[in-house]
Structure formats: C-alpha cells, structure tokens
Amino acid sequence: MDTFVNLTLNGLATGMMIFLVASGLSLIFGLMGVLNFAHGSIFMAGAYSGVWAYSKTQSFTLALLAGMAVGIVVGYLAELTTVRRVYGKPVAQVLITTGLMLVLNEVLKAVFGPNIIAVSVPPLLAGSWDLGGIIIVKYRIFTIIVGLVVAVAGHFILTRTRIGMIVRAGVQNQEMVQVLAINIRRTFSLVFVSGAALAALGGIMMAPALGAVNPNMGLENQMLAFIVVVIGGMGSFVGSALGGILVGLAGAYTAWVFPEASLAVNVILMAIVLLLKPNGLFGMGGGRNA
After folding, report:
1. In 3D, which of 191, 251, 194 has the Cα closest to residue 221?
2. Which domains does the chain possess?
3. Can you tell me the distance from the alpha carbon of 38 to that of 31, in angstroms, rounded to the nearest whole number?
4. Region 131-152: what's the mean pLDDT?
C-alpha cells in the first residue's frame, strides 16, 4: 500500500511538472493552432537561465523570475521575426520553428556550454516527510501546488476575463473581432509570449526535480508536452492539467513494473483518448491558426 501511495504522489508531481511544460503549448498549439517545434528550446532557455540566476543569487524566486523573463524575450523575438509570418500555414510553421529550434539550441550551447550542469533543490524545499512509511518529497508537493495554481489561473483568464473572451473569439472568427476595432494580431502576440513564459517556468521548475540541465532536455520534454495537450484537448488548461496527471501516473506505474515501456504507454494512452474522443478530453474547438 505504501508503495502504491508513493508511486501515486510521484506520478502526480511528475504530471504537474509535465503540465507546466505543456501549459504554454496549450496556448500556442492547443488554442492558436501554431505548430511550435521550438517550444522545447524556449523551455530549455528558461531552465538554463534560471539555473544561472540561482547560482548567482541563491534565490529560487529570482531564478523563477529570470527564467520567465528570458522566456518572454525569446518568445517575443521569435514571434516578431519568424512565427508571425507563418500564421495559418502549418507546413511553413513546422519548417520555420524546427529551424528556430536548432538555432536556439546552438545558441544555448554557446552561452552555457554543451555539458550537463548539476542543479540542487532550494534548501527551503529540500528534504521530505515520512508519514508512516509514505515518503512525501517537499519539492514534489511544491510542483503540484504550482501546477494547480497555473491551471486554475489559466482557465479563469481564458473563460472569465475580457482578454480571454477576445482570444477565444479571435480563434473562432478573426475577421469579426477585427471589425470590432480590436487588434487581434497584438492579442495573438501576447498569447504567444505568455505561452513562452509558461514554457520557461516549466523549465526552471523541472530543473531541480531532474537534478541537472542538459542540451537534450528540451526535445525530450517537448514530446510529452504535445502528448499532454492532445490528450487534454485543444485550448483547455484544465484538460492539459488532467492530461499531465494521466501521463504522470501512467509513467510512474509503468516505470515500477516495466521502465522501458513508459513512453510507449503514454503514446497508447493518447491513442485510446483520441479513439474515444477525437477532440481530446476537454477540447475547446480552437487551433484554427491566427
């Protein structure tokens, strides 16, 4: 029983960390329909810059802010110089964001080096609680809380605020929103930059959990992020959070029995969800491209 509870807690924490990576993609791909293959590189930029900031300041709060700031800058420049020119062109999006991914990866290697950099959990969040044989790792509980806050806040903004209403209306009918004298391009730029900031947040949150950052972490986690967004449904923060939890739990349970099958189980899970609900668990019908 203790093993099951520990696996469940680990799966929930892992799922929330995956969701933090996927939350930005839920906006960029799930809502706007932009096939951003550079998402993992922005995630990695947040991780590296956050780790660097933490090494200089020893403040995890400043590290989080620094990582998100770098994500915002990189996302803004990417949207301004490349992505904006390929809205509504899926094939061009794949090609140009793949090229952007390669460029960003090489820039990060040039700035931070190609080697693995060790990362420690902040002292305040280090350690664990032992509750009758059930080991509760403090940092994992922290990631669960942060993930839930991001999920609730994102869902509230998209469904209960004016900016969220404009974004959803613009996805469904861009011309009608423009008739109302709303600069939908600027709104979509804001959405893209917000998605980049969330990707960077996921990167710096993931780094202490992994214990290190490396040049391959972006591509590895990008695959899981796409799986989570597809399972949860296009444009749904709640769906992506649930998708992350399902992927995390499936991975934790499978790793206990047959570690080599962890990724395969997640792909199978995605296939089953799509067979039963082609739009995902909570699909909002977005993703038409700006």
Report:
1. 251
2. 2-276 (1.10.3470)
3. 17
4. 87
**φ and ψ at residue 144, rounded to 5 degrees:** -65, -45
Tokens representing residue 141 in the block: 């509980």
> Over the stretch 100-114, which tens digit does the pLDDT of each residue have?
999 999 999 999 998
Q: Which residue has the tokens 């903004």?
A: 157
Q: What is the mean pLDDT of residues 133-153?
A: 88
Locate 58 and state its tokens.
Answer: 């020893």
DSSP type of residue 134: E
List the structure tokens of 239.
């769906």
Q: What are phi and psi of 178, to 5 degrees?
A: -65, -35
Burial of 114 (0-12, 13-18, 19+ CB in 10 A): exposed
DSSP reduced 3-state for 113:
coil
Six-digit token string for 254? 């499978």
Rounded-to-integer distance, Cα 274 and Cα 290, Å: 24
**Which contacts of 125-133 are long-range, i.e. CB under 8 A and separated by 24 or more positions?**
125/60, 125/208, 132/2, 133/2
DSSP codes of every residue in 91-109: HHHHHHHHHHHHHHHHHHH
CA distance 192 to 32: 9
